[in-house]
Amino acid sequence: MAKKIAKSTAAVPKKKQVSRASTVTMPPPLDAPDARVLDRLWATVLSRKDASPSESHSARLLARGTAKIAQKFGEEAVECVIEAVAGHKPSLIAESADVLYHLLVLWVDAGLRPEHIWAELSRREGLSGIAEKAARKPLAMEGLPTKKIP
Ligand SMILES: N=c1c2ncn([C@@H]3O[C@H](COP(=O)(O)OP(=O)(O)OP(=O)(O)O)[C@@H](O)[C@H]3O)c2ncn1[C@@H]1O[C@H](COP(=O)(O)O)[C@@H](O)[C@H]1O
Fold it and tell me: Which family does it belong to (predicted)?
């Protein structure tokens, strides 16, 4: 496998090899924000459960209930899709942040902690999506009729 990679990178012009290596292997700066911001934001949103809707956007959303929160999350996701397809990276960053914030509000509303989702992601680590799909039981095995409707 290592041989194969060495062979394929040898075909890449030298200039490209350097820039690719620098984006893939350069560690982020030590003081760079990282994904722990999600845990902190979740705790902030949770703390807003009993706050005044006039002072906190999270409190306002939580007070409006699950359907509204889910609707807002869906709207933000669609905006994210639009920016991704348009290829607007700065807007995609902003919309991605909106999606994550609204997803955290959904988790708080549902009584979920980030650890529940981190655990599920960890469980899937190293499991190929292709292999997982191939291992799924056919619907007929789960009690559904096997005969086609004529
Ligand atoms: N990350 C966010 C964040 N992202 C987006 N938004 C708000 O989400 C709102 C989206 O506006 P929209 O017009 O789309 O939605 P809307 O006001 O519900 O309007 P309708 O669709 O209902 O008409 C704006 O008010 C944004 O400011 C956020 N509000 C808060 N946070 C974080 O949550 C923390 C707590 O915020 P509060 O709960 O407001 O104290 C903040 O410190 C931030 O870290």
Answer: Belongs to the PRA-PH family.
